[in-house]
Amino acid sequence: MSASEHGEALTPGSYIGHHLQNWNVSFGEHWFWNVNADSLLISVGLGLVFILLFWSVARKATSGVPGKLQCFIEIIVEFVDKTVKDTFHGKSPVIAPLALTIFVWIILMNTMDLIPVDWLPQAANLVAGQEVYLRVVPTTDPNIALGMSFSVFFLMIFYSIKIKGIGGFVKELTMQPFNHWAFIPVNLVMELVSLIAKPVSLGLRLFGNMYAGEMIFMLIALIGVGQLPLHFVWAVFHIMVVVLQAFIFMMLTIVYLSMAHEDH
Description:
The chain is mainly alpha-helical. It has helices at residues 12-19, 37-59, 68-87, 95-111, 119-128, 142-174, 184-221, 227-261, and strands at 24-26, 34-36. The protein is built from 8 helices and 2 strands, in the order αββααααααα. It has a two-stranded antiparallel ribbon. A hairpin with a 7-residue loop joins β1 and β2.
């Protein structure tokens, strides 16, 4: 178990509280917002890993017998491509690359949960020469999870207006489910609630599941030296959660954007 900055052993409560703190960077008293630098740096870093890995494999791809890495990447690309073709009913060159990016990027961020809780924070302490806060799973930060979901939300709005026009989009909000002018206020409230609930539920689902998994890893870490066997057992089960949450986020993104492309 880690020690506090004053050299005193942390209690279980303070240990978990410490690991739930982000490395928060303020831009001064004249700025109204702060940044969770650990979530930002790790998520961007893993995004670059995804880009460089797939670019490298694509550049070296051969039509002959593929290597293991190329074969693995091709399986992922074909799986995502088939999922998009089966689910997305419009025509857009953006959806498949977006779905692939979301799927792989979220898997990479979620996989950081499998690293024993203290390893990276202790390495950061050695580098910094003092005790620092470091949360290594970006998807346990609601800013990251909701930021991704609201990016999907803005794409929904963009494509809805692009495909249906402003008039069609407004009519969709005001004339459903009751197709009568007298019910416009009721329709508008119902449709706006439904529309806003999509990105909120999308982000909170990812955040909630990964946060719960992170908490269990922290409770296991309280055991101390003998934590690794139990950590391994939970990590094996948690791999399913890691992949499943990435798939659900990708799948709902495809469904929402397919709905945005429907022109009645």
